[in-house]
């Protein structure tokens, strides 16, 4: 059966034009005027864009003594309702668990996914077994390895481990990702704040100032440069982090920055809300920042020094958040956003003139597909590409409310935001997967998308060459020993 999406305005990362799209099976078969097919979808007065790709989600993730509340079933329903047709989740091996073993667990978790998915592999510990298994992880179609520079005593890896792992990534044509916060400084500040009686959610923000992020991003960039590998900085939330990325890119290093939709629109005042629950619901790392930092992130997206907008969707219920009553360090870190990313970015970005429509497509889909090495199968409207499409009505309006969301938690951090411009239909590999409030994709429809190793690793700019091929100096005048 073929489907024609008729009369729409196609918006890609670099073009805006009117044409029909013919879908045959999983893929786009033709793009042009006056196409016909078995079924016709009227897209006049709407935009047709590549489906969103969310490069950063955590479904059913064991974390801080609990599990994130959305699984691949509810999470992928939320994704489709928000115009997102692919998510990249984090496979996190338990202490000393081999990454290949952990991958089996994550494949099982992802079984119910309604839309396509991939994984990043977490470097949650380091050792010979991990090193040995990395090539097979890459062969399995995972070309990215995530390092936590924070969460001391749990997920955090140290600099020596990071350098060894980054070097291994370089050998394999894989790319390291970093959660960049100085975990030692955060742990010190947390204990200091608790000792001084600051145990509320505002302590979370005080213990993770922009400086701890800026320092860690700089450090990770220097380590990546010495290892000769590109670097992707997840949840880039502040100017210090952006500045480090911008500087590295100006020097020619391949460093990518990923702001979250939450950091772009929500600010630190949320943590000073008198209602404990309101503030705790918004506890995530890094915390929300002030307006100056937000402006820096918006500017980076427009300028291209930041490339991607993600959600870090990691939803916890109120009951889970209450684990941190009386001690903010025990509030599970994470917020939702998967269902709202596209529409919020459109209203707050395109609607205000901060982003063009084409930039919007680039940062929500195309850039992500390119960086993660799945372009043009994903992230493109081209003949032969997967028919992952979102029909976006720029005139549709909605006020965000937890009452109508697909996520299983009882609140939404964007509650009350008024949206103009909404995804009204989502196609996932050629099938109508969502229409006007209704998720139609079956559980288990999603497929794992292999992401091959990228061709040659970035070349280091600094001392790397000398480190790997040190010159030997023939010395004279060596003092006699034992004198
Ligand atoms: O607070 C956050 N971001 N929770 C999810 C885990 C992570 O650090 O990405
Ligand atoms: Zn568990
Ligand atoms: Zn993180
Ligand atoms: Zn995350």
UniProtKB/TrEMBL annotation:
It comes from Aurantimonas manganoxydans (strain ATCC BAA-1229 / DSM 21871 / SI85-9A1). This is D-hydantoinase/dihydropyrimidinase. It catalyses: 5,6-dihydrouracil + H2O = 3-(carbamoylamino)propanoate + H(+). The keyword Phosphoprotein does not apply. GO terms for molecular function: dihydropyrimidinase activity; metal ion binding. PANTHER family: COLLAPSIN RESPONSE MEDIATOR PROTEIN, HYDRANTOINASE/DIHYDROPYRIMIDINASE FAMILY MEMBER. Residues 47-431 form the Amidohydrolase-related domain. CDD domains: D-HYD.
């Amino acid at each position: 059966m073929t489907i024609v999406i008729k009369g729409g305005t196609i918006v890609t990362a670099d073009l805006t034009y009117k044409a029909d799209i013919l879908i045959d099976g999983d893929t786009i078969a033709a793009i042009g005027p006056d196409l016909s097919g078995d079924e016709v979808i009227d897209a006049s007065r709407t935009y047709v864009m590549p489906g969103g790709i969310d490069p950063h989600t955590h479904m059913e993730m064991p974390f801080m003594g609990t599990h994130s509340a959305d699984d691949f079933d509810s999470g992928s329903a939320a994704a489709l309702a928000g115009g997102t047709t692919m998510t990249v989740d984090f496979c996190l091996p338990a202490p000393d668990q081999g990454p290949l073993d952990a991958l089996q667990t994550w494949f099982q978790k992802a079984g119910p996914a309604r839309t396509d998915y991939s994984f990043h592999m977490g470097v949650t510990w380091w050792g010979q077994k991990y090193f040995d298994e990395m090539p097979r992880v890459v062969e399995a179609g995972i070309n990215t390895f995530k390092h936590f520079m924070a969460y001391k005593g749990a997920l955090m890896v140290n600099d020596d481990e990071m350098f060894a792992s980054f070097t291994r990534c370089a050998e394999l044509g894989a790319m390291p990702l970093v959660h960049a916060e100085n975990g030692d400084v955060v742990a010190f500040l947390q204990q200091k704040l608790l000792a001084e009686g600051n145990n509320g959610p505002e302590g979370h923000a005080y213990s993770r100032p922009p400086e701890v992020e800026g320092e860690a991003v700089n450090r990770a960039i220097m380590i990546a440069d010495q290892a000769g590998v590109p670097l992707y900085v997840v949840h880039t939330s502040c100017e210090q982090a952006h500045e480090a990325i911008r500087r590295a890119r100006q020097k020619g290093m391949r460093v990518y920055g990923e702001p979250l939709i939450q950091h772009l629109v929500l600010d630190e005042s949320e943590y000073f809300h008198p209602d404990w629950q309101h503030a705790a619901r918004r506890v995530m790392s890094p915390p929300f920042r002030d307006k100056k930092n937000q402006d820096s992130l918006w500017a980076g997206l427009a300028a291209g020094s930041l490339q991607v907008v993600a959600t870090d969707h990691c939803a916890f219920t109120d009951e889970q958040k209450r684990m941190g009553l009386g001690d903010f360090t025990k509030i599970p870190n994470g917020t939702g956003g998967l269902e709202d990313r596209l529409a919020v970015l459109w209203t707050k970005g395109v609607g205000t003139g901060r982003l063009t429509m084409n930039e919007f497509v680039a940062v929500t889909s195309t850039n992500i597909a390119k960086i993660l090495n799945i372009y043009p199968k994903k992230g493109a409207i081209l003949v032969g590409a997967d028919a992952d499409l979102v029909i976006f009505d720029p005139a549709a309006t909605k006020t965000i409310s937890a009452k109508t969301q697909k996520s299983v938690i009882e609140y939404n951090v964007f509650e009350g935001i008024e949206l103009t411009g909404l995804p009204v239909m989502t196609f996932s590999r050629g099938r109508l997967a969502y229409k006007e409030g209704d998720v139609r994709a079956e559980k288990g429809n999603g497929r794992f998308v292999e992401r091959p190793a990228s061709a040659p690793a970035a070349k280091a700019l600094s001392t790397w060459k000398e480190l790997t091929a040190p010159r030997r100096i023939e010395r004279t005048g060596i003092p006699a020993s034992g004198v």
